[in-house]
Amino acid sequence: MDELHKRILAEKENVEIALGNLKDAMARNEKTVIELAAIATFLHNIYNGIENILKQILKSKGIEIPESSTWHKELLNLSASHGIISEKLSDQLYEYLTFRHFFVHAYGFMLDEAHLEALANNIPWILLQFMKEIEK
Predict the structure, then answer these.
(1) CA 16, chain centre distance (Å)
(2) Domain assignments of the chain as residue spans, ordered by start
(3) Which residues, other chains included, contact 15 with Cβ-Cβ below 8 Å and sequence gap of 6+?
(4) What are the C-alpha distances in Å from 112 to residues 2, 8, 106, 116?
């Protein structure tokens, strides 16, 4: 197994652990600010894992990762334009990117339960699509 595949496999394992933790947090009956913060953290972890995988793939193709203040968005755009992920998936991941930005810059008590639930309910499918597309 080459170095790229080892790094991607390690990142996938971490993402799967975060997904399991997310499912556990979502299964809680009562969702106080503590549970909502945990859900948000696991969503953030999963998205960071996706970004880390995209960075590794782009680097392996000799594509420079942007260093601008908008590099997160540019990472998605580059990944789609180079056929690593589809435009459709890039658009879907953009919602998680905007959540990531909110999560980093907001306070935990500002989290919206309905929005978190929508993101959490969709992430297993999005993650499955992502893994299928990067296998190409």
Answers:
(1) 11
(2) 3-135
(3) 45, 46, 49, 50, 127
(4) 42, 32, 12, 6
Cα–Cα nearest to 24, from 38, 3, 4: 38
Residue 66: the pLDDT is 83
Query: Could you tell me the two tokens for 37?
Result: 């913060």
Distance CA 86, CA 84 (A): 7
| pLDDT at residue 1 greater than cutoff 70 | no
CATH topology of domain 3-135: Four Helix Bundle (Hemerythrin (Met), subunit A) (1.20.120)
Average pLDDT over residues 100-113: 94
pLDDT digits over 32-68, tens only?
999 999 999 999 999 999 999 999 999 999 999 988 8
Q: Tokens for 99?
A: 């959540």
